[in-house]
Amino acid sequence: MVLDLVPLWTILLAMAVFHYVVFDGFDLGVGILYGFVRSEDARATVMNSVAPIWNGNATWLVFGGLGLLTAFPLAFAIIIPAVYFPILIMLLALVFRGVAFEFRFKETGLRRFWDRAFFGGSATATFAQGVVLGTFIQGFKVDGRHFAGTSFDWMTPFALLTGIALIFGYSLLGAGWLILKTEDGLQRWARRAGRACLIAVLVAILAVSIWTPLSNADIAQRWFTWPNIGFLAPVPVVTALIAAGEWYALNRQQELTPFLGAIGLFSMSFIGIAISLWPMIVPFHYTLWEAASSESTQAFLLIGTLFLLPVILMYTAWSYWVFRGKVRSDIGYEVPQE
Q: 197-227 b/e with 16+ CB inside 10 Å = b?
């Protein structure tokens, strides 16, 4: 009897992607909002809110990329050439953002430059990720087992829309994080920013929800034919309820709820994409099972994963627990200059 490990690897890969979107998403969102903060003390507080945890969040990006390469090599071989330039831009932006993070505190004479670099790197990396997502949803030109398109197939209106939408989505996550971690004036500013981002996110969700089924008949049939429409109706209903709760929380003195509400909206969007594309991993050509590596390869990889994944989860939980609570501009990553 052969054990089918594809569902397990699908769950692991989906978990890695979702964890990356949430954990690195909010600190990229904080970096985007950072560009609109004017006070030096407020900027220091914003930076200190993500200083202890921003670097570890990228662990999920590595895990997701390696999981795709090893567990679904055919999908990796088709998807990566199709989005090579957005991924290259994303990685360079993330590196530049990390450099800006360090130099912002060390090279005070060019602090304004590194402030802009931190904002620019965060926004560029987020936009590139959104473009990759939009390109994935639209699908790829495939000839046999190879990508048959050009290096610029990702430059479509839909992909650019998802890039802009993700900027607002990550900013909403970042606003929720700042509400949780800051106080007084900066917290009030984060609430205002969160409300503006929430409106933009809801417009983007509506646009993508209309555009996607209009551009693909299979997706439209999955969502809008009976009895599917009855089974799937809770997805938009729950999304609307979460959005209403998020708006209420942003206008009240609640601190944790805005962050959880933003995660909830991302969760529902994630579920919506999964419903639209299941069981495809190379839309609309190869299923998860068709793109998977051999059973022996998946089993071998799973042994190491089951050892390392709990370590990653425990380290992540421990770091957030240690650095819980509010942050201040005078206590954090920055070391006062002599």
A: bbebbbebbeebbebbbeebeebeebbeeee
Over range 6-16, report the average pLDDT.
92
Give the integer Cα–Cα distance in Å for 180 and 187: 8
Nearest to 175 by CA among 187, 163, 158: 187
Q: Are 93 and 121 in contact (CB under 8 A)?
A: yes
Q: How confident is the model at residue 164 (pLDDT cuts 50, 70, 90)?
A: very high
- Assigned domain for 305 exists: yes
Nearest Cα to Cα of residue 194 among 118, 122, 266, 258: 258
Q: Does 95 reside within a domain?
A: yes
Do 195 and 250 touch, CB atoms closer than 8 A? yes
Which domain CATH number covers 252? 1.20.1630
Number of compact structural domains in the chain: 1
Q: Is residue 229 part of a domain?
A: yes
Nearest one of 68, 135, 124, 140 to 92, comparing CA atoms: 124
Q: Give the angle 256-130-263 at the CA atoms, nearest 5°.
A: 15
SS3 letters for 173-221?
Answer: HHHHHHHHHCCHHHHHHHHHHHHHHHHHHHHHHHHHHHHHHHHCHHHHH
> What is the percent of the chain with per-residue pLDDT over 70, rounded to a whole number?
96
The candidate with the shortest Cα–Cα distance to 137, out of 21, 294, 38, 281, is 281
Q: Which of 157, 146, 176 is nearest to 73 (CA)?
A: 146
Whether 330 is in a domain gets the answer no
| Cα separation, 32 vs 38, whole angstroms | 13
Q: Check pLDDT > 50 for residue 38.
A: yes
Q: What single-letter amino acid sits at 132?
A: V
Q: Which residues contact 289 (CB under 8 A, 6 or more apart)?
A: 6, 279
The Cα–Cα gap between 280 and 136 comes to 11
Residue 172 lies in domain: 6-322
- Between strands 142-143 and 286-287, the pairing is unpaired
Residue range 172-188, pLDDT digits in tens: 999 999 999 988 889 99
